[in-house]
């Protein structure tokens, strides 16, 4: 009996093992079929302002070539990098791997940064009449983009008379007064001159102050003021000023207050953001709901149409 015959069993086992090992190596090293779903990439932040930095990075486990397309004319073949948009708008950012696989990220760019540069040129101003009658409530409003704290001195009492953005005061004595406003953003006080004329003499020389405005009159003034500033946003005028005015004056600084526009619900922030891009809207009517303390608006109902 020769060597092969004597070790035939061992030779068969070794041959089978070699074949099995070769099959395992072939399976492990076979080329995997990839698809667009296998792309591993990030783009952030997806919501930013003009001039802000957008970061992008591709960590896909495959791909010999890649191309980033930013929808504003800019392209890049880098694995990661940064980009800044120069105009507000909606930009699909697409990563193309090996010229056949792709993944898209939707980026929204607002004009907030552009408006911020204009803020330095717009100090707080006082919106009020130059003349009023004795014992008549006079409304004073601070028009500002950033101020959160207000101190009013109407020049008659010698004391601080109000600490809200919109205030009212009835002068008891005729004369010329300098109204002074201090805020947390203006370096110098803001002044306004008003002339108070004497009221007509009352019967038996009794002077009675007129009653304060009714609740209906106050709410009507709030609704009209709210509608005016929403219309300014719809007209494309200084979004940041009118948006922040409404938020700080009526919404207690909250941007998630519910807004129902033509029976469609949204938050105050997303409604105003859509309003500035959706042109030619006419704000016909605004109805606000105020909390029990009558300090903040908790709901806004809007009726609007295309012009």
Please state roughly what percent of the residues sit in beta strands, choosing from under 5%, 5-15%, 15-25%, 25-35%, 35-45% or over 45%. Answer: 35-45%
Q: Level of helix content?
A: 10-25%
Query: How many E strands?
Result: 19
Q: Which radius of gyration do the C-alpha atoms yield?
A: 34 Å
Number of helices: 6
Molecular shape: elongated
State the distance separating the first and last CA atoms.
106 Å
Structural class: alpha+beta
H and E order: HHEEEEEEEEHEEEEEEEHHEEHEE
Poorly predicted ranges (pLDDT <50, ≥5 residues)?
Answer: 113-118
Strand order of the largest sheet: 2-8-7-4-5
What is the arithmetic mean of pLDDT? 86
Major β-sheet profile: 5 strands, mixed
């Amino acid at each position: 009996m020769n060597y092969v015959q004597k070790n035939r069993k061992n030779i068969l086992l070794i041959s089978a093992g070699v074949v099995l090992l070769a099959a395992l190596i072939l399976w492990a090293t076979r080329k995997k079929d990839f698809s667009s779903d296998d792309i591993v990439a990030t783009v952030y932040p997806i919501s930013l302002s003009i001039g802000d930095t957008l970061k992008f990075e591709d960590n896909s486990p495959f791909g010999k070539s890649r191309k980033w397309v930013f929808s504003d004319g800019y392209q890049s073949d880098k694995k990661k990098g940064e980009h800044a948009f120069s105009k507000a708008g909606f930009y699909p950012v697409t990563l193309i791997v090996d010229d056949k696989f792709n993944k898209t990220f939707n980026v929204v760019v607002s004009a907030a940064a552009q408006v911020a540069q204009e803020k330095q040129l717009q100090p707080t101003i006082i919106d009020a009449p130059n003349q009023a009658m004795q014992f008549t409530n006079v409304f004073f409003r601070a028009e500002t983009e950033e101020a959160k704290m207000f101190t009013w001195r109407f020049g008659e009492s010698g004391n601080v008379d109000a600490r809200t953005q919109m205030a009212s005061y009835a002068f008891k004595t005729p004369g010329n007064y300098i109204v002074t406003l201090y805020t947390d953003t203006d370096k110098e006080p803001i002044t306004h001159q008003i002339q108070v004329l004497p009221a007509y003499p009352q019967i038996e020389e009794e002077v009675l102050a007129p009653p304060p405005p009714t609740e209906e009159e106050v709410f009507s003034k709030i609704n009209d003021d709210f509608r005016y500033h929403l219309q300014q946003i719809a007209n494309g005028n200084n979004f940041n000023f009118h948006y922040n005015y409404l938020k700080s004056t009526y919404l207690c600084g909250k941007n998630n207050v519910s807004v129902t526009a033509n029976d469609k619900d949204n938050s105050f922030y997303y409604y105003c953001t859509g309003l500035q891009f959706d042109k030619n809207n006419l704000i016909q009517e605004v109805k606000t709901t105020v909390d029990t303390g009558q300090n903040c608006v908790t709901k806004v109902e809007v009726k609007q149409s295309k012009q």
